[in-house]
Amino acid sequence: MTTLSEIVVVTGMTGAGRGSAAKVLEKLGYYVVDNIPPTLIKAVVDTAEASEFEQLAVVVDARSREFFSRLVEELEDLRERGVSARILYLEASDEVLVRRQEAARRPHPLSREERLMDGFDRERELLRRIRGRADLVLDTTNLNVHQLGQRIRAAFEDPTSGGLRASVMSFGFKYGLPIDADMVADLRFLPNPYWVDELRPLSGLDEPVRDFVRSQPLSEQFLEKYDELVAILTDGYLREDQHFLSIALGCTGGRHRSVAMAEALGERLRAHGVRVLVVHRDLGRE
């Protein structure tokens, strides 16, 4: 019998993309079981091992007050059996969740006879504690299905490789803070290329903007300090069996400074052996 090496629990808000995430994991070779209560996870694991599956993904949602305690208990039991158990949590803004649910023409499973938003409020409260235990939190507010797939593949494509995996996201403060970042840095202390006429129409992906941003003495100091901080976090994360780190770098519009610095930080992390996905959340919105 093949020993199951990893189980990924996909959970989070209704409409945040649990089903899409499950399809991506299935393409990566995971045996996927959708919509099961936490109490059945061990039974599914036994079935997966009997069928000689090495990687399992289960999709669970919050339907009762016992959700958190039962799920944590089941995962701890699996870890004692030597199975790597990780939680992928998906969320999005209330506005986007309501719009998606209305487009699907489905009531929220926890809304009862109340407003749709009441169901989301109840679900957020039920999931609050499990979100805090998640290994990876993804905010799908501004992600299409292809971008979501890219983020999931970067995190789970090679579970045997070990080490730390990181996503580095650029964003614009004018569009709001990312809600799924472990670390957020404000780069508005750097001179803004927007005020240089020949650089304004370009982005941080263009060489003139990149050179302008990287030529600032504070840019190099920032990258050096972040190198040191990420090195400390890498040791701590791996010691605690945490393998995903999300870093968000922000400037005013998410077009120049944060984009250039996200690319630079991604390069430095890769040089240290960290698997990195660089994402530019707001590039192209202006």
UniProtKB/TrEMBL annotation:
Keywords: ATP-binding, GTP-binding, Nucleotide-binding. ATP binds at G12, M13, T14, G15, A16, G17, R18, G19. Pfam families: PapZ_C, RapZ-like_N. Gene3D superfamilies: P-loop containing nucleotide triphosphate hydrolases (3.40.50.300). Residues 6-157 form the RapZ-like N-terminal domain. It comes from the Bacteria. This is UPF0042 nucleotide-binding protein. It comes from Aeromicrobium panaciterrae.
